[in-house]
Design a protein that fits this description.
Blueprint (H helix, E strand, L loop, with lengths): L21 E10 L10 E6 L2 E6 L5 E7 L1 E7 L7 E7 L5 E6 L40 E8 L10 H14 L5 E7 L3 E9 L3 H9 L9 H14 L6 E8 L10 H13 L2 E7 L4 H13 L1 E6 L3 H16 L3
Parallel strand pairs: 1-7, 8-9, 8-11, 11-12, 12-13
Antiparallel strand pairs: 1-4, 2-3, 2-5, 5-6, 9-10
Helix pairs in contact: 1-2, 1-6, 4-5
Length: about 325
């Protein structure tokens, strides 16, 4: 059968002023064993690539005005495992209950740390010092990281793994290497201008400050990344833009063909395009895999913490190895 509200959220050309039905949505966070409410629990509510953060009241509930849509709600509470729930919400199906299980074995908190909506081990991650990256064996690198910080990257298998991968590379980089970090969501922003790779503390500080929020507008950002790579071009070295994304990437002027052509043209100019992929967006990954191939760079999928520690650094060494 069809949901009685199936048509209510669709645009009407016969009634252009028709507004979506608005109603009160209620989110409750409870203990999975006792069913008792968990007050002051941080929650994150996601619709597409838009999200907002809130917390439950003294009764373990949170209420807000909502329209018919598909919602993803993540909740956490100190001493409990975090969980997310996906649900289509409408006026008759407007309650979301998230039951959190207790953590069986707890890890002592480090003084001065606080809880966040996503617990990232990368905030406590101490990268291993990488050796064996001598100038006699490896070319110099000019790397421009183009990082997707849209709300779709705000997942445990996305931004935390990205931070781990970048932090590990930062310890391996040399004074002769150059690292730039540009973030994009609603707009492109240079958060770290071209910096010697030996400035590990500065680079890692920027990495750990990365936060998610906004829509994905990658097409415009890639032009800024290529421009930066060209300005800091290292003759005889490896020059490249590395896109880090979960796959939600819009092409130039919403045109994927134009984006592919740009990647091919710039690779012929000596600026490669590589991709670090995160999350489970299958459709998006098919596109960025083709993009990396067109840009003559590498495509690396980071599914877990171990790969986050190894794959990026390994590929950079493989690219810059003097044959």
């Amino acid at each position: 059968s069809f949901d009685e509200f199936a048509e209510a959220a669709c645009p009407s050309f016969s009634k252009p002023n028709l507004k979506p039905a608005e109603f009160d949505m209620e989110i409750s966070v409870i203990d999975s064993a006792t069913q008792e409410p968990l007050s002051n629990s941080p929650i994150e509510i996601t619709i597409g690539e838009n999200f907002n953060q809130a917390s439950t009241d003294g009764n373990g509930s949170f209420r807000q005005k909502a329209t018919i849509n598909f919602y993803i709600v993540m909740a956490e509470h100190p001493g409990y495992n975090s969980r997310s729930v996906e649900k289509h919400v409408n006026p008759k199906n407007r309650k979301i209950i998230i039951a959190l299980p207790l953590i069986e074995k707890t890890t002592p908190l480090i003084p001065g740390t606080t809880s966040s909506i996503i617990k990232s081990d990368s905030s406590l991650f101490v990268p291993e010092l990488k050796s064996g990256f001598a100038l006699s064996d490896y070319k110099r690198n000019n790397i421009v990281f183009l990082i997707d910080k849209s709300s779709s990257m705000n997942k445990p298998d996305c931004m935390p793994y990205l931070k781990t991968a970048l932090s590990q590379l930062a310890t391996m980089a040399r004074a002769e290497d150059r690292i730039t970090i540009i973030t994009y969501a609603n707009e492109a922003k240079i958060v770290l201008s071209s910096t010697p790779g030996s400035d590990h503390e500065k680079i890692n500080g920027i990495i750990q400050q990365l936060k998610c929020g906004g829509k994905t507008e990658g097409g415009k950002a890639i032009q800024a990344a290529y421009k930066n790579a060209e300005e800091n071009f290292i003759k005889g070295g490896v020059n490249q833009v590395i896109i880090a994304t979960d796959g939600g990437f819009n092409g130039l002027s919403e045109n994927e063909t134009e984006l592919m052509q740009l990647a091919g043209t710039r690779s012929n100019d000596g600026i490669k395009l590589s991709v670090l992929a995160f999350g489970q967006n299958r459709f998006g990954k098919a596109m960025i895999m083709r993009l990396a191939k067109q840009g003559q760079g590498f495509y690396v999928f980071i599914p877990d913490e171990n790969d986050a520690k190894e794959k990026l650094s390994e590929n950079i060494k493989l690219q810059s190895k003097i044959k």
